[in-house]
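[Protein data]
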Amino acid sequence: MASTQATIETSLEAVSTQDLYREMLTRIGEDPTRDGLLRTPERMEKSMAFLTRGYTMNVTDVLHDALFDVDYDEMVIVKDIEFFSMCEHHLLPFFGKAHIAYVPNGKVIGLSKIPRLVDVFARRLQVQERLTTQVGEAITEAINPQGVAVILEAQHLCMMMRGVEKQHSSTVTSAMLGVFKTQLQTRNEFLSLVRRQGSSF
């Protein structure tokens, strides 16, 4: 098994990424030498690198200069954070909005860093459930707050363009950590604030 994997890896190293995309175009019945497709493998390579750039990002680098000691212990919410990701099952996009809250424990995160944190995990091959959990756990590890809440609302092209083909379906996932899990009042306050202005859940 190990030798087979090594052989595959060696074979792939000898083939460029653009060659692989060119082969894919051929296998779906296209002619990669026709005018409209001549540069498509190059574009696909750049596009995929951009869409999966989360693999080259990490939480420490994103947050390192934006963690502040603050005497504040009320809820902080950043809502309606647009995100785009790629379904790991079909390599089709899913996209939507993230709503994130935390109750500080002596330390806060610079507000602009929270959307960047979402991108660290969204710009990878993902499932929505794991993405939701990863964002919550990353904030917990970074500032050890009293609690973190994450809600993601998303539409999945793998459900809209193929399969059941339901164009108006959406998926909502949540992760409630710390006081958001143990204190009903705190969780309800978060849900009430996020639901304003017409969130779908």
The domain at 17-51 is CATH 1.10.286.10 (GTP Cyclohydrolase I; Chain A, domain 1). The two ends are 46 Å apart (CA to CA). The first strand starts at residue 67 and ends at 69. The longest helix spans residues 128-143.
